Each structure stands twice: as structure tokens, then as C-alpha cells.
Amino acid sequence: MTARTLAIDVGGVLYYDEPFDLAWLQGVWELAQADDPDLTMDAFLQAMRDFYQNREPGSPPPSLFPPHGTNSWQRVRERWTSLIQPIRGAVDALTQLAGEYEVCIVANQPPECLASLRDLGVEHQVQLVVLDSLVGYAKPDPRLFQWALDQLGWRPEHTVVIGDRPDHDATPALALGCSAAIVDVDSGWSTPTGIAPEIVDAYRQLRAQRSHRAGRSAGHWAIASLGDLAHVLRTIGREEHSPRPGQEVRP
Questions:
Q1: Of 85, 162, 164, 237, whose CB is crowded by the most CB atoms within 10 A?
Q2: Which CATH architecture has domain 5-16+84-248?
Q3: What is the pTM of this model?
């Protein structure tokens, strides 16, 4: 593998997804309970578990307790930048990588992500920001990655896709002929204010179950953070190198 270009995800790579999920769930609970005062927290938590366990990969979040899920998601989007919790060292790692490689952003994120990337100082360091909400394709559809490659004139065999989900990131990337690295991000996020403890506990349990079921796609690197990618690429240099299935790389 000769790495020259990098396509980097946002959620789970540059900043944590969990604060957005929890703010959305709290909003759904408040709206649904106001609409139906007889709704108990236990009933809500069961519906929440069913939603996360049965939803199709890539399905949008607002389908819980409609229309309250949609309304809550709109509220989350309105406060998007205030919910950002950058993953420690991730932005510095991107800056380092952008000094050595051409970099773009490819992510399933709402348009409000653009302001967040600007605030983090990321936007000016990358060649292109590709969001599913603006392009019309969403991961795991490989057309989102292909659209970015076409716009930039990048060759798949020289491109490494960096994400946090084997199914959403590694699988479509490998299908296009790219290489892939999957970040197994730490749990250093903090719960936003005003979230019911019961929702937080149930959410943590669901995240653990989903992580356990996720497995690994063959042929990608498993790294602990975006900073580790620089170590990986320095180690292999620009010589031909392919990871073994699910190969972990730690500095």
C-alpha cells in the first residue's frame, strides 16, 4: 500500500458521537412524556433498546417516537457546536497528517458539522469536506467515498479511509480498492448536562453491546486514535504493505 491521500471521518474520530446521541434521546423522552404523561421511563427505555437493536445500518436517528424523534434531532442540530467534545489529540494528529498527505473529510454528518470543523481549525487544513447530508449518499454506500475520490482525482489504491466503524467505513473503502484504518476510540466523553441517569446507563449498555457485535472487516488496521495512524504510516513508509485481517497497530 502506497499512502498518499487520506479520507477521514468525523464522529468517533475527531469528536465523540455520544453527546449528540444522549442529547437527542433526552429530547425525545421529554417531548414524548409531555405528549403522553402516562409514558414511564421504563417503557421509554425499552423502546430505546428496541430502536437501537433493530435499526438498519445507516438509518437516520429521528425515527424513535415520531414525530418527537425528528423534533428532538432538530433541536440537537440547533445546538450542535455546543455539544462538540473533541477526542483528545485528534485535531493535532490531523494537523500533522495534513502536513504530509492530502486530506479530505468524508462523514455522515448534518450541515452543522461544517461550522464545527471551522471552529476546530480543521476546515482550512483539508482539500474537501464531503458530508452525506450535502452530497446525497450516506455510508455505508460506497458512492459517498467514490464521489469524494472523483472530485479530488484521487486514486483508491493510494487512499486510506479512516473511520470508527468496520461496516460503515472499512467495508465500502475496501470494496473501492482503498485501504482502511478503524479507530477504536476511548470512552473519554462526558455526559451533557440535563440527561436522565437512566438514559445514560441504558445507552452505555447498548453501546457496549453494539461494539461487541461489530466485529472486524478483513484487511484493515485497528488503531486506538487518529494519532496512531501517523505512527502506522511512518512505520510502513511508502513501501508496499497490506494489513493482515483486523491487524491491530499500536505505538
A1: 162
A2: 3-Layer(aba) Sandwich (3.40)
A3: 0.89
Dist. CA 13–CA 172, nearest whole Å: 17
Closest CA to 202 of 21, 45, 37: 45
Cell digits for 70?
Answer: 425528528
Q: How many residues does the chain have?
A: 251
DSSP-based helix, strand, coil % in the chain, nearest 5: 50, 15, 35
Q: For 127-134, which contacts have Cβ atoms below 8 Å and span 24 or more sequence positions?
A: 127/102, 127/103, 127/152, 128/104, 128/152, 129/104, 129/105, 130/104, 130/105, 130/106, 131/105, 131/107, 132/107, 132/108, 133/108, 133/109
Q: Give pLDDT tens digits for 138-165.
A: 999 999 999 999 999 999 999 999 999 9
Confidence of residue 238 (pLDDT cuts 50, 70, 90): very low
Beta strands in the chain (DSSP E): 5-8, 102-107, 128-131, 159-163, 179-183, 221-223, 247-248
Q: What is the pLDDT of residues 189-213, one digit of tens each?
A: 999 999 999 999 999 999 888 765 5
Picking from 153, 172, 146, the residue whose alpha carbon sits closest to that of residue 102 is: 153
Map out the domains of the chain as residue ranges: 5-16+84-248
